[in-house]
Amino acid sequence: MEIIFVLIGIVAVTAILLLFNKAKKWKKFKTPVLDNYDLKKITIDHIDQMEDGSEFEMYLYQLLLELGYTGVYKTPGSRDFGADVVFTDREGFRNVIQAKRYSVGRTVGVDAVQQAFSSMRYYKAKKSMVITSSEFTDPCETLAGINHVKLLDRKDLEAIIKAFQQDDHTAIKNRIEAEPRMILETWSEMNDPVLRDIKKDYKAEKRVNELRKAK
């Protein structure tokens, strides 16, 4: 009987220690980056371990301030209308950023592009972009290219972090402000006298035709 109590005690102590260590580890990332970190010490691993997307937004917010951009501010945590951070680039154009702090393997879909693009009017911005710690899906890349939304993925973020540690602010600004990948042929087709069908639901068309014939 005593052995059972001893084993139970050992298990309980082990569980408490594990929970304490985990809490200690995550406590490091609970405080917003803006309040508690030297940005030069931040690595991609730190970003991967951030508790939620708001900390990533705070990181980008302070990064833009440190880079010397003007008109930099973070939007509220709720009802932000699709933009997380706003700044004015070197050409004087306002930019909106949709930030996606995703784990590796979880890709960013078209909704991020939709949010960034649609938020431009609300924030009176000229350009929009999505920055992620992960990758983008192919449909996301396509929609961004059509709407000229700038995409910065994990590789871009790693390059930005490295350049910041080396005080190469110009390289970071050049990467951030570089022209987005553009898909132009879709826009040029708008002037064609006959427009082709795009993403047509042929099953729905067939069903409606059958119903109309049955009348």
TrEMBL record:
Gene3D superfamilies: 3.40.1350.10
Domain Restriction endonuclease type IV Mrr: 52-160
Domain of life: Bacteria
Keywords: Membrane, Transmembrane, Transmembrane helix
InterPro entries on file: Restrct_endonuc-II-like (IPR011335), Restrct_endonuc_IV_Mrr (IPR007560), tRNA_endonuc-like_dom_sf (IPR011856), Type_IV_Methyl-Rstrct_Enzyme (IPR052906)
Chain ranges passing through the membrane: 6-23
A Pfam family that the UniProt record links to this protein: Mrr_cat
Protein name, per record: Restriction system protein
